[in-house]
Specification:
It contains one helix and 26 strands. An eight-stranded antiparallel β-sheet has the order 10-11-12-19-14-15-16-17. The protein has a four-stranded antiparallel β-sheet with strand order 1-9-3-4, with no helix packed on it. With about 350 residues, it is an all-beta fold. The chain is globular.
């Protein structure tokens, strides 16, 4: 059996950097493969006070959510206006396209906006999913029932990472499931939009996801009766994605985490305490080691270059990443961290060819 089925991760995930122009702005990817994105996550790097903008092809263009707050979905006609064959188009909105500001966009491929629908049955919500089973990613939209039920995700594999957001009828947090959060992650939750540590809840109905569905409790947070919700679901794929955990050692010679690929993008969260933000690093904002430039999903901060509150210093290597700094955000002694990572290149290709370090 081949080490990986994904020799070119850029066919499924890409990061692109661009400068806003305050008008029509066609953003073109520069990866090895063309990528028509279905989930686009944009952040202004230059200016503080600018929200993260999250768009997807299931909800459609101009429909924006912000990871740094719990506001419902809003429609901005001049925000993201098209998902293109190798990138996307922005309008004049000053959030994702502020004139002369530097921005980053992280993009994932699902199924080109083509959904498979499912109907409400008892307490099980109805809705639809578009799934990329090769890369282990699906976008699921559903209408809540208010009762404990299950939702189809279309992955054909067990999700390791799920994010759910109520889109309509009031303010609710972004809820995160991560399979390495605790020894019983189905009983826990994290908020993407704030810094809280993990906590015990019944929002996943205390039931682990399966290869066909994930479970929701009778709660207004993730399953409000009559409200629309969106979920982003990920299953691990060898050589392409890894959703794991590690324990910090409080040492500048920090832990090495094996992923099985050279990372392109990593998000971290300290789950032991409620003082530390989610943190994102990538291989486009830092093309060489160390990786120091970080952005924070739960905040509208500008980019931190490693000299401010970010304190990030990580090496991306051929088969994982190495922590190079003592910081509560990614390496406090004996504290638990989860991470979500996507590949630039698998450690070994399907033909047995190894990748080199940066």
């Amino acid at each position: 059996m081949a080490y990986t089925t994904i020799d070119d991760p850029s066919a499924h995930f890409q990061t692109v950097l661009y400068t806003g122009n305050g008008g029509t702005n066609n953003i073109v990817n520069d990866g090895n493969s063309d990528l028509q994105p279905d989930w686009v996550w944009i952040k202004n790097r230059s200016t503080s006070g600018k929200d993260h903008g999250l768009f997807d092809s299931s909800r459609g263009t101009t429909k924006q959510l912000n990871s740094n707050n719990f506001n419902p979905e809003n429609t901005v006609s001049t925000s993201l206006t098209a998902f293109n064959s190798d990138g996307f188009t922005l309008g004049a909105d000053g959030g994702p396209n502020a004139n002369s500001d530097s921005h980053v966009a992280w993009q994932w491929k699902a199924n080109g906006g083509s959904r498979t629908t499912f109907t409400e049955s008892g307490n099980n919500p109805g809705g639809g999913y578009q799934a990329n089973t090769t890369a282990g990613f699906s976008i699921v939209d559903f209408t809540g029932t208010g009762g404990a039920g299950t939702v189809s995700h279309g992955l054909g594999a067990v999700p390791a990472w799920i994010i759910v957001k109520r889109r309509s009828s009031g303010n609710q947090n972004w809820i995160v499931y991560h399979h390495k959060n605790t020894s019983a992650p189905e009983t826990e939750r994290l908020y993407l939009d704030n810094t809280n540590a993990t906590d015990d809840v019944t929002w996943w109905n205390d039931t682990a996801p399966t290869s066909s569905v994930f479970s929701l409790g009778a709660t207004s947070v993730t399953n409000n009766d009559g409200s629309t919700h969106i979920a982003y679901c990920f299953a691990e794929k060898q050589g392409y994605s890894k959703f794991g955990s590690y324990t910090g050692n409080g040492n500048a010679d920090g832990p090495f985490i094996y992923t099985g690929f050279k990372p392109a993008w990593i998000m971290f969260k300290n789950t032991s305490t409620g003082d530390d933000q989610w943190t994102i690093v990538d291989n486009k904002r830092d093309i060489d080691n160390p990786t120091t430039h970080s952005l924070f999903p739960s905040g509208n901060n500008a980019e931190d270059d490693g000299t401010g509150n970010g304190y990030i210093n990580v090496d991306f290597v051929s088969n994982g990443f190495k922590i190079r700094q003592i910081t509560h955000m990614i390496n406090a002694s004996s504290e638990n961290y989860i991470y979500m990572a996507f590949a630039e290149h698998p450690f070994v290709s399907s033909k047995g060819v190894p990748v080199t370090a940066r």
